[in-house]
Amino acid sequence: MPERETIGDVLARRGVSRRALLKYTSTLASVMALAPAASRAMADALAKAHRQSVIWLSFQECTGCTESLTRSFNPNIGDLIFDVISLDYHETLQAASGFAAEAAREAAIAANKGKFVLVVDGSVSTKDGGIYSTVAGKTNLQLLQETAKDALAVIAVGTCASFGGLPHADPNPTGAVPVSDIVKDKPVINIPGCPPIAEAIAGTVAYIVTFGKLPDLDQRNRPRAFYGDAIHDRCYRRPFYDQGLFAASFDDEGARKGWCLYELGCKGPVTYNACATIKWNGGVSYPIQSGHGCLGCSEPDFWDKGGFYKPLSTNTGNDAEIVGAAVAAGAAVGVASALIARHRKRKAQTAKAAAKTEGQP
Amino acid sequence: MTLLDVARGPALEFAFAVFAIGVAWRLLSVLLLPWATERSAKRPGTPSRAMGAIGLFVRHLWPAGPFRRNALFITLNSYVFHLGLAIVVFGLAQHIVFLQNAFGVSWPSLPSGVVYVVAVITLATLAAALAHRLTSPVLRLLSTFNDYMSWFVTAAPVATGLLAVSHLWAPYETLLAIHILSVALLLAWFPFGKLMHSFLVFLTRSETGAFYSRRGVEI
Ligand code: SF4
Fold it and tell me: What value, to the nearest 5°, has the Cα angle with vertex B141 and ends B139 and B146?
């Protein structure tokens, strides 16, 4: 695509009508809770916008995030904008490999210096100089530092890039850290999830392309439009939670009646994501609708929170052992203090008896 | 580690350990004390020690005649409070899964709405108990840090639990964390303050009962 071609030109060439574009921007506007008038403004801005260069780097990851984006049930204009119009370099999706791929990355950086958006999926290995994950002889750490230097902004896609994710799980053998631990001088937007919802990835990029600014972010640097509400607050099983009707196993009466999954370890109340509203596979369903509790995958350290099936109101430590040892220790102190009391009593009695004998004529 | 992770993990671990050490220590140090030598002769016709203990326990479930007027409010308030607290602790589904996780036993829960109403009543009885303590000149004079602290560590979990279920004021994860931390505080304070009466009341009342009955005291 020529550099000066607008997104509208590309979409027209690909047979996307203005009506379809408006439909997309109105969906996006409603998902991102923008004013109704914003959808038209967005469509106009998007049509006139020049392409935003995007460079995508993959580090310690499973490719699930790319899968989520490209295998979304119904590839939509969002994907098109993201994938076709903007993506200059994506290690997994591009045809080039080896030295040609590296040359392509360097060329893309050079051509868009200071203007491209860097997308990262996967965490960054830092232990032993980051040798646990390398591409073409360069560590992820080097690649990130080198590329982020010339980027406009960085988008960390997926929980690994956002919070360290699975590679960061205890005992974190590779010293995995999130992108935001390395990139300090650029805005870093986190789009966590394992994987994130395709609409959240495409929508955030579309927002930046359209408005030329970053979306409103929460305290974990997640776009509020997609991560503003807890799953629990939008969950259709919530009325059962409020009434105290819980499934106790995956195949009991409660489970069949669609009751709340809190007792089965659902992390919906402490997880911020759009699964309950946008849903997955083109809006078909989401984990809780399919009968499984939320794993909390868009939150930091979701892997190390005491177990997916442990209810939120339970303790996570190994308390039986601790209590056993503590009872033994307490009992020892108790016995010792009773023995001291007995000893003192005996001593006092002996002293009294002695005093009595002495006092006798 | 988030606040909730700290609360569910290390904070509860610490609290359980302190609770277990303290309770074992205090109970054994009392139970293993040498018995006081009986210096008086047993009154003829008085019941056995055990019967004397049980008799007094039952009689003291309600204040005796001369004290009834003055003690009526605090007795009734205490009953409502203790019953309410038991319903809240053992009736809410979220609590039952906690206890099941700890002890392996489980029972059916009460509807959440019922538990919420009971929790509000329980909190009201706690407020009334504090107001009574602060307004009664004698009680105020007798009150120490121990009394206020024991009140606080009991009232805090009830109040924070109500906030957590109503999702008011802060996000659920923060409220749940504060609620669990308040329970941890209660557990850690329990053996060393007046809350230990949950165990010791059986020892003290029984011993008083046995003592009274031997001497023919009937209050
Ligand atoms: S299923 Fe999970 S998210 Fe839904 S109401 Fe129950 S606890 Fe909340």
Answer: 80
